[in-house]
Design goal:
The chain has about 475 residues and is of the alpha/beta class. It is built from 17 helices and 21 strands.
């Protein structure tokens, strides 16, 4: 790590392969704020990437060996293959190549107070909540978030303090490149079994992550796996959860409007503040509790915590309401694990819609095969499930698994291979008062926007006629 840090400190020009990725773009923005000349390549220009282009960053819309000619360092994500022409050129020219998670670790090492948020679920929302609280408190943090936070106008924030807030993803042990001052472990479940193989290995990785924390580890004290991962570490431990045996816990939990909640934040038996949330779902109660506990132990004023959380309205692809043409509500969500799907659909079903359509894009063959029964159980919560084909991502179908196998396990399910076919089905079936909820870790948001566009055009035509 020290050698790589020396390379970074002696470099000026950094090129990103796949710069528009949700994990890449914010890193590029932070490095640019540190005075580096940034360039990158990507096949798709997102709104976030367009912001970088508007700020003067050179972005190429195709991968080409000539793109890296002036680079001192090339940064790549796990999605970039060895046969990428820019990777081949970088190695042939002996230009140092650094994987995204390693670069994130290098960036964090430049700050005295890195705060890293980990866990199987809830990382993006909790990272965004903490960023919003600390910004409200005028801490002036930097932040790297896995989704767009409207409050800061993107998924990164450039601050002038010694505090940086970032997500710490466990996949392929990416988070072991980070050495936080404060780390948060929200929950630990079986996931990414194509890499970890079993839950025990996941817990061991989280233990290594906790052991790399210098000051304080904040864990979900109601999660036995979090407790196991935090055994025998040198940093202090602080717990949060629903039960009173935690350092921070909740009292007076109640619904305020459908799927929205309010509660009293407690600390060692004493009331801290009453909190009212503007994002739905019980999962966000725990996310907000983790964020509030982190901020409170940092000495943030309790009223700032209260106001910040009440003003928090979510992040991109986390139960994001896209529109309601003809009173048919279109929502997009990142849920791609059975637990996330269950939580998201329970929230949706409690909101008073006439009919809930769950449009789900299975993400990777390995995850679909491993959790086939769990996916069926979670998805069946919806009134109707619409499945697309499985998004392969980085895999080949050695598991002989297909979306039809998942569909066969549910009575309320239809299979449509393409987004166009799904859009046709929703157009013919959904009625005013219904919810169409697209879910998945891939590009199912494209389908959400197709549905929104189609229904919006139909609504305009009906009004004209």
């Amino acid at each position: 790590m020290n050698k790589l840090l020396d390379i970074l400190n002696s470099s000026k020009n950094i090129h990103f392969i796949g710069i528009g990725g949700s994990g890449m773009c914010p890193i590029a923005e932070v490095l640019r704020s540190h005075g580096y000349n940034i360039s990158g390549s990507d096949n798709y220009i997102s709104d976030t990437l367009q912001k970088l282009i508007n700020d003067g960053v050179k972005v190429f819309t195709e991968h080409n060996s000539d793109n890296i000619n002036n680079a001192d360092i090339v940064v790549y994500s796990a999605a970039i293959k060895d046969d990428n022409p820019e990777m081949i050129a970088a190695r042939s020219l002996n230009i140092p190549t650094i994987e995204r998670s390693t670069m994130l670790g290098l960036i964090c090492s430049k700050y005295k107070n890195p705060i890293a948020i980990s866990g199987t679920h809830g990382k993006t929302s909790t990272t965004a909540m903490i960023t919003q609280i600390l910004t409200f408190a005028q801490i002036d943090p930097s932040a790297i978030i896995g989704g767009k936070l409207p409050f800061i106008g993107g998924n990164s924030r450039i601050g002038k303090s010694e505090t940086i807030i970032c997500e710490a993803c466990e996949y392929v042990d990416s988070f072991l490149k980070i050495y936080p001052s404060i780390s948060i472990i929200l929950n630990i479940e079986a996931d990414h079994l194509d890499y970890f193989k079993n839950l025990d290995n996941i817990i061991k990785s989280f233990h290594k992550f906790a052991s790399q924390t210098s000051n304080l580890v904040i864990i979900n004290g109601d999660d036995k796996n979090c407790i196991a991962a935090s055994q025998n570490i040198n940093a202090g431990i602080l717990t949060f959860g629903m039960s009173k045996n935690n350092d921070y816990y909740i009292e007076n939990l109640k619904k305020t409007n459908g799927a929205f909640y309010a509660y009293t934040l407690m600390h060692h038996g004493k009331k801290v503040i009453d909190i009212k949330l503007s994002v739905p779902g019980k999962h966000n109660v725990l996310n907000s509790l983790a964020a509030a506990a982190t901020a409170h132990c940092m000495g943030i004023d309790k009223n700032v915590i209260k106001d910040s959380l009440m003003e928090f309205h979510g992040v991109h692809r986390r139960f994001e309401v896209l529109g309601s043409p003809n009173n048919i509500t279109i929502v997009d969500d990142f849920a791609h694990h059975p637990t996330e799907i269950k939580t998201t659909l329970e929230t949706a079903m409690s909101m008073g819609f006439n009919h809930v359509f769950a449009v789900f894009q299975p993400h990777t063959y390995s995850r679909t095969a491993e959790f086939l029964d769990s996916f069926a159980s979670s998805l069946s919560i919806a009134d109707t499930v619409v499945l697309s084909e499985i998004l392969a991502v980085r895999e080949k179908n050695i598991y002989n698994i297909y979306s039809e196998d998942l569909a066969a396990k549910m009575k309320n399910c239809v299979y449509r291979k393409t987004f166009e076919e799904i859009t046709d089905y929703i157009e013919k079936t959904a009625k005013p008062g219904d919810l169409v909820l697209t879910m998945g870790g891939g590009n199912v948001y494209v389908c959400a926007n197709m549905i929104l566009d189609r229904l919006s055009k139909n609504h305009i035509i009906k009004n004209i006629n």
